[in-house]
Amino acid sequence: MTGTTESGPAPAPTASLDTAPLDLAMLEEMRAAMRPGAFGAVLDVFVSDTRQRLATARLAVGRGDGPALAAECHSLKSTLGSFGATAAAALARRLEDAAAQDAAAAGPLLDRLEAASGTVLDELLARFSATPGGGGG
């Protein structure tokens, strides 16, 4: 009975729930294409930028500022996707869409994005910042 539950049809799987936090093959390809040490520097910027954008998004939710929330989520969607974090990028896209409806009520979705992004950042730092040659490069 695939596709059903006791209460009816099963919900369709979503990228935010069914994919690994990171596309490691894509990240290794990105790292290999860079000069030694460059990936670590790019990673540092990505981590810092992601944390800042999440904090700014949280402030936007608190103010009920849909346009500011949408702008932060748009940027997060792009950068998370560029780093192979497809599930977190999908959450950012959903939050970007929700911002236009009711930014103040978007807190629970932002909670999920913060958790997913935290997992991504933790895994990136664990896998790449401790590698020899200056931070994964």
Automatic annotation (TrEMBL):
Q: Which UniProt keywords apply?
A: Phosphoprotein, Two-component regulatory system
Query: Do you know which InterPro entries this protein is assigned to?
Result: HPT_dom_sf (IPR036641), Sig_transdc_His_kin_Hpt_dom (IPR008207)
Q: Looking at the record's lineage, which domain of life comes first?
A: Bacteria
Q: Which residues carry this modification: Phosphohistidine?
A: 74
Cross-referenced SUPFAM superfamilies? Histidine-containing phosphotransfer domain, HPT domain (SSF47226)
Mind telling me which Pfam families this protein's record contains?
Hpt
Q: Does the keyword Transferase apply?
A: no
Q: Which PROSITE patterns does the entry mention?
A: HPT
HPt domain spans which residues? 35-127
Q: What is this protein called?
A: Hpt domain-containing protein
What species does this protein belong to? Answer: Rhodocista pekingensis
